[in-house]
Amino acid sequence: MDTKLADLKLTPWLLDELNQLGYEVVGDMQHLPAEEMLRIPGMGGHCYRKIAKALEREPFPDVKKRVRR
After folding, report:
1. What whole-number distance in Å separates Cα of residue 5 and Cα of residue 64?
2. How high is the pLDDT of residue 1?
3. Which backbone phi and psi does 4 adopt, to 5 degrees?
4. 9 near 42, Cβ under 8 Å?
5. Model confidence over 4-15: pLDDT tens digits?
6. pTM surpassing 0.85?
7. What are the pLDDT digits (tens) for 29-60?
8. Could you tell me which of 14, 17, 19, 25 has the C-alpha nearest to residue 48?
9. Which of 9, 26, 38, 67 could form a disulfide bond with 54, CB atoms 3.0-4.6 angstroms apart?
10. Best CATH choice for the domain 5-54 from the list 1.20.1250, 2.50.20, 3.10.20, 1.10.150
């Protein structure tokens, strides 16, 4: 969890936003739920999935796959 956010190759404006909020390593974001992370300006699904993978957490735990009939 000591992975730096810069090593995840996030978008530059999101990386700047996270640094302004005080997050420098992935472990700093451990306490944030998915909803709060996705409310950060500039945080999209692709960047969120990268951070969730680095946090060893399921990106969307409540979403169930739909079965086609």
Report:
1. 29
2. 62
3. -75, 145
4. no
5. 988 989 999 999
6. no
7. 899 988 899 999 999 889 999 999 998 877 66
8. 14
9. 26
10. 1.10.150
Which residue type does 35 have?
E
The helix/strand/coil state of 14 is helix
Question: How would you class 5 by CB atoms within 10 Å of its CB: exposed for 0-12, middle for 13-18, buried for 19 or more?
Answer: buried
At a CB cut-off of 8 Å and minimum separation 6, what does 54 contact? Answer: 1, 3, 8, 26
Q: What angle do CA 39, 45, 40 make, to 5 degrees?
A: 20
Q: What are the tokens at 54?
A: 């680095």
